[in-house]
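For this section, I looked closely at the sequence of one protein beside the tokens encoding its backbone, which the following lines show:
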Amino acid sequence: MASICTLKYKDKPVVKVTGRIDSTNAPEMEAEIAALLKDVPAENVVIDAEDLEYISSAGLRVLLRLRRAYPDLKMENASSEVYEILEMTGFTEILPVSKAYRKLSIDGCEIIGEGANGCVYRLDQDTIVKVYNNPDSLPDIHKERELARTAFIMGIPTAIPYDVVRVDDFYGSVFELLNARSFAELLMQDRENADQYIQQLADLLKLIHGTKVKPGSMPDMKKTVVDWVDFLKEYLPAETWEKLRAMVDAVPDRDTMLHGDFHAKNVMMQNGEVILIDMDTLCMGHPVFEMGSIFNAYTGFYVTSPERRGAFIGLDAEMAEQVWNGLILRYADGDSALAEKIEQQAALIGFVRLMRRLIRRNGFDTPEGRQTIAVYRKNIEALTAQIDSLTW
């Protein structure tokens, strides 16, 4: 008899089936499932087939009756053999079935990038995998894949994942990046040519910001920044908040692309070609919002510990300063006055994001957190008083 159990994953009942299901055990299996689901609502029931080795026509008839009782029934993690049976008999047209994902180990793998949503590991010379922090990340993975394809079609040099895998209890996207190295590595190991790499970063950033997207096809970053500002209303002086909110409101809507997490670890060099990775943050809007996140990567995160500047993206403080200053100057086509203006605007957006982020992470609960929040607030107040626009 098949060994069957059920567990709750959030609000989703999952029935895990193990072994073989054929004419010898199908009736017992059906009775056991019925008992397990006796008090379960008829929504969102899932059959976990990860350990199911075989299913016969008798088992398929059980699935058919389950499908009638539970119209939203789904099957997950079907092996290639089980999936082939279901597909050949037409069951994949009756109920949603997803294949099991290939399992990978990251033991001993080099970490080449780390962000809010996941960590990027080098599996071998040719391959990297981005492992997502959220165990229920499949929708995010598929979204990132579609965003990457969209960007690639529009002419952005982008790495597109070719496989989805399981890494322990998490999911990952696999990319082929033959002999690829991050710009963070290149900048640190080839400092004499830093200006060349910084120019390439600036060229890529301008290419992204000059690429128009279909309205509504990507998240609107302005809406997100408005939410950040609104969150800070009770934490900033009224005059500061009102001016800040008015400046954000005045930023014109743009249907041009933003990467959302553009820094030296998310840009790779592969055989002389510059390639952008980590596309789950892709969005649209005015470039000032992108510059705010770039400011944080090179400067903002380290405002209370300048000696650590650039650590998160693998740079030392000297190189982080050189990259940030060089990037905005080249982005401004050598116009130093414009570069200074962009830096002030980017810093204001960056500190807004950081202050909200730390408050939401219970920053007021520790002396260090309260001190850092005070530094962010001081910078926001000063910058809001100094500038009258967030556009150029």
In short: The radius of gyration is 25 Å. DSSP finds twelve helices and 16 strands in the chain. The first strand starts at residue 3 and ends at 9.
